Amino acid sequence: MSPISNDADHSSARETTEGTVYTVTGGDWDEIVQSAAKADDERIVVNMGPQHPSTHGVLRLILEIDGETVTEARCGIGYLHTGIEKNLEFRNWTQGTTFVTRMDYLTPFFNETAYCLGVEKLLGITDQIPDRATVIRVLLMELNRLSSHLVCIATGGMELGATTIMIYGFRDRELILDVFELITGLRMNHAFIRPGGLAQDLPPGAVDQLREFVKTMKKNLPEYDKLATGNPIFKARMQDVGYLDLSGCMALGATGPILRSAGLPHDLRKSDPYCGYETYEFDVPTTETCDSYGRFLIRLEEMRQSLRIVEQCLERLEPGPVMVADKKIAWPAQLAMGPDGLGNSLDHIRNIMGTSMEALIHHFKLVTEGFRVPAGQAYAAVESPKGELGVHVVSDGGTRPYRVHFRDPSFTNLQAMAAMCEGGQVADVIVAVASIDPVMGGVDR
Amino acid sequence: MSETQEPRNGDGTDAPGSDGGGLPAPRAQGPEVIGVRKGMFGAGNGGDTSGYGGLVRTVALPGASARPYGSYFDEVADELEGALEEQDLVPENAIEKTVVDRGELTFHIAREHLLRVARTLRDDPALRFELCTGVSGVHFPGDKGRELHAVYHLRSLTHGRILRLEVSVPDADPHVPSLVSVYPTNDWHERETYDFFGLVFDGHPALTRIMMPDDWQGFPQRKDYPLGGIPVEYKGAQIPAPDQRRSYS
Question: How does it sit in the membrane (chain B) (predicted)?
């Protein structure tokens, strides 16, 4: 490694066995172009990322380019691997939700629900989950679908230079995060959905704020249509870019908006319903275009459909419990706001400490030790905004998960990047990757 | 509960050890024993003040199911067996056992026949499991001679069905045929399972690490690989690292 030109603020070049390697810092394109023009090798390999504003987090794209054409494209992932699946094996089943919610951090409620559905299947209590808990789960998931699609459209627009869409998208997402904050106490990483039901019921005023939100959102959603759908520049950048047809989708296991943009109306909410989705009225939009523009249209329409489901949930909310009746599983604590944020209700503590020795023992055992899950394995899948989010849960009969594996749709869909980008322009790589909507927290876990 | 009080005799507990060669241990009939749980509170050292220290329980996964399996499972099993017979393959050789548990169908497949079974499941018009949702590894150090399991979930969009394939191999010879030629989507999934469990997928186009750095030593999600971590001080007390804390067995 012998630097041949070394200006601290600008590009540097060094010779390696692979050829000359340039480190680009921005504002130094002329120097790069001059040096590259002198080289006798036509083949240029560009490392995009892992720190690059338009690669959706720490995704590294390795592009082999010939002029402006991408001849070969590969992904480098793993920069955000945090060992969540391994960590889960050292916590009890309930604590697992705290970890899984951090996987794909834009779809926390889907991660939590998928995990809880898996654990509930292992426990054999799927039928005993109270209706109110299930309706609130659906409500939160559909709100979450809105917020995830909004981020996808917002950041996708920003990467095209359409910053207005970005501002609009994050403006509306903020409304949803406010609702999440009201209901769960947190904007992200909620750990609100627990095996057996929910951590707690909706707070007072939540339904009113939700109705207000639906009203605002119905006014705001058409703005995306007006702003982008017919916009000639937007269409020119998106149409026929990131092309992946149905056979490509099936081979590469792509699901979600990518599969539906190839014309197949596959949606787990319809084909393999969970949480009572078969009783809700909504449509599964598809397009035949197989491209980024089609995926954009599908996400727009899915947001409208999610809003429909949210309204139906609000109609269905009946008072009732939000946790299974089985006291061997239901978290005994009555959560209430204490001086240190969320904590146990003092009334509940007074009750178990002062009057019932058994209640105290039971509380202590369930909180410190957790419940046992019969040995076996189960697979639960939900339709996340990105596609099929599957969870394979294995128990050895203990109080901790033996193995939890997440089949994250971002991980699987990102494999399609090479098929979508090779042979296209470098600028189109950005559009194609944005239409996959990968979230590295989910890809790397 | 599938736990039994007494260890079973000759049910995989006395199977040939991993040094006995590369062949998977013979299949046990009945529940699959994967380990033994001792005591109650996980404290292995110190005096037993609980009285539960002598408790010994066998940990067993659900065993083979007998027909009828219920739901669409019988139809899938019939079609698969018929299709394998058409290819001059004895179904009993390929399908080691069939488990129906918690409303899910699992075929335990002998690894040498995995590729054929997967291709049949994908291509047979009556089966049509077009979508593979990848592979998940599971490490059972107590399942002697079958320590490493590879679990596949296949989904049929045509028929709206789902099933599970499970292949188990010994730690001494962790080779499983790659399904990339049948389901290209398994490319990254198999790399991930190799990365974390050391399962070698023969025939994979480029089996390299995907999550961990390329020069990483060991396979982090195996049960004998420590989690790591450092003790944390909380209100004056030292809380040990997560894998050093007391666990309840």
Answer: Peripheral membrane protein
